[in-house]
Amino acid sequence: xxxxxxxxxxxxTNPGKRVLPGFALSMGISLLFISLVLLLPITGLIVQTxxxxxxxxxxxxxxxxxxxxxxxxxxxxxxASMFNGVVGLLLAWVLVRYEFPGKRIIDALxxxxxxxxxxxxxxxxxxxxxxxxxxGQLLAQLGVKVAFTPLGIIVAMAFTSLPFVVRTVQPVxxxxxxxxxxxxxxxxxxxxxxxxxxxxxxxxxxxxxxxALSFTRSLGEFGAVIFMAGNMPYVSEITxxxxxxxxxxxxxxxxxxxxxxxxxxxxxxxxSINIWQARYLRRLHGR
Length: 287
Known about the structure:
globular; 14 helices; single chain; 287 residues; mainly alpha
């Protein structure tokens, strides 16, 4: 055995799977990160609501104004995520399957909502879609008002969560083997049939995951939405704004109670989509 192999064996018995040495250190850092970034805030949320009785908790989260904010948030997030599902799939398809001038620029712009502060995005969208804005003037001629309406909420949510769909679908589309498509083409299958029977079944789990991530991001969106929504109670007031209002009133328990509803909904959705994706892939590969 060479000296190099002896040195490597001190770190790993399977070099193909254990590239980084030090399981204890790696696991410790990972658990510390999870504790500080995820578990600690959730624990703080639970502590804030622990002093409330069940009757008080239920009264806060089922307040008439809060319930109206749930409806506005859910419908806007659903429509925004459905829009992102279609547009995100098309963008991923174009970026992967075609070569054209400016492709790298467009690919980089996809991540702009991640890098741009949401408040800046909201101000920019409000300026563009206002009645005297570039887009707002054109839409006003058609009788469509976007800024400071529920439609503006959907636009803001779609803008901030679109990258989730594109970046989830794009790598799966890049890894699809071309042999299946070529075989379908040689059997005189139309382009629509090839996409529907060959490509889409492979993209479906990634697309659903991207749409779910877009939906959960939209549920908690705040900065971009409050500048685009009219923030009218029972009409265009989102749940995140209700949490902010309770914080301004120094009612931290009520704010935490409302936030817990959003947290529970997001966690249930994420766990459900992960379970569905795992079962779908097992069934797909088990054929």
